[in-house]
Write a structure and sequence with these properties.
The chain is α+β, with helices and mostly antiparallel strands. Helices cover 47% and strands 12% of the residues. A hairpin with a 2-residue loop joins strand 4 and strand 5.
Length: 284
């Protein structure tokens, strides 16, 4: 059970339920920055929230108790029992035991679906640093300015954006995919916020109707904004990890990797994916 209290213009959470550096550094979100030491700033939900971790306490500020309960508990997935999840993943699996030991402070964030979709369209064949710059550029150029930081522009804000404008933001070949997402969502062809309760296969089918959105991008969106924790995005790092640790170093097609992940991790595939990604990228 969470133990938290309002103090010093923020909310203090007892214990260390997650590691902010690991959580923000595992490729699932792009609007954050390191302030100093163990303090990070996160721009989400039209706000800038700072998270400071020291010893066995985590301070969220500026933030009142009601805001913390309404927004940030869900955003950081604080009510999920990660110890139970990690215990199940490492049972009889030496690889996951090592990966979980290395990145055990990771939590899966619950982010806005539209921002996550555009962010991961931008992520294709890109570096995390470049993705952060482009996403920040979108917010600065098209978003609303407020005290909490530039908000991420919705599809209606981008309705009049042209390919040339997006090119100025260094979107490259991804500009046409972004514009197709804008068009289809504004036309009501795809309803990002009307798919609650849909099975994962149907959500993936809907998302991949957008030009440039393949299984990897779709599964990232499903995992990080739909709460579909069995989703298993297969990017370069995860492919390398799965091939090295579970396929004897043999080059393996993504569908075969996904099939094994579903069999091995089931509904916990998304958690396994994040531990493997973080381990392989930073240590593997």
């Amino acid at each position: 059970m969470l133990e938290y209290a309002e103090e010093r213009g923020g909310v203090t959470l007892a214990g260390r339920p997650f590691d902010a550096g690991q959580t923000l550094g595992c490729g699932q979100c792009f609007r954050f920055f390191k302030e100093d030491g163990e303090t990070y700033g996160i721009i989400a939900n039209g706000r800038t929230l700072y998270v400071r971790q020291a010893g066995d306490k985590t301070l969220f500020y500026p933030c009142g108790l009601e805001e913390f309960k309404k927004i940030w508990i869900n955003y950081f997935d604080l009510e999920t029992d990660y110890e139970k999840i990690k215990s199940r993943l490492i049972s009889g699996d030496a690889v996951m035991r090592e990966a979980v030991s290395y990145g055990g402070g990771i939590r899966l964030l619950n982010q806005d679906r539209w921002e996550t979709l555009i962010s991961f369209i931008i992520s294709q064949n890109n570096t995390i640093r470049n993705i952060q710059k482009i996403v920040a550029g979108f917010a600065a150029k098209y978003g609303e300015k407020n005290e909490g930081g530039d908000s991420f522009p919705g599809p209606e804000k981008l309705a009049r954006a042209a390919g040339a404008e997006l090119a100025e933001l260094k979107t490259g070949f991804r500009a046409k995919y972004i514009l197709d997402a804008v068009k289809k969502i504004n036309a009501g062809e795809i309803d990002l916020y009307g798919m609650d309760g849909y099975p994962a296969e149907r959500v993936e089918a809907e998302l991949t109707r957008i030009n440039g959105v393949g299984p990897k991008v779709a599964n990232c969106v499903m995992l990080f904004s739909f709460g579909l924790r069995g989703a298993f995005p297969i990017d370069t790092w995860v492919k390398k990890a799965m091939e090295r640790f579970y396929f004897g170093g043999k080059s393996t097609p993504a569908p075969e990797i996904k099939k094994l992940a579903e069999k091995k991790f089931g509904g916990l595939g998304g958690y396994a994916q994040q531990y493997l990604f973080y381990y392989m990228r930073n240590h593997g």
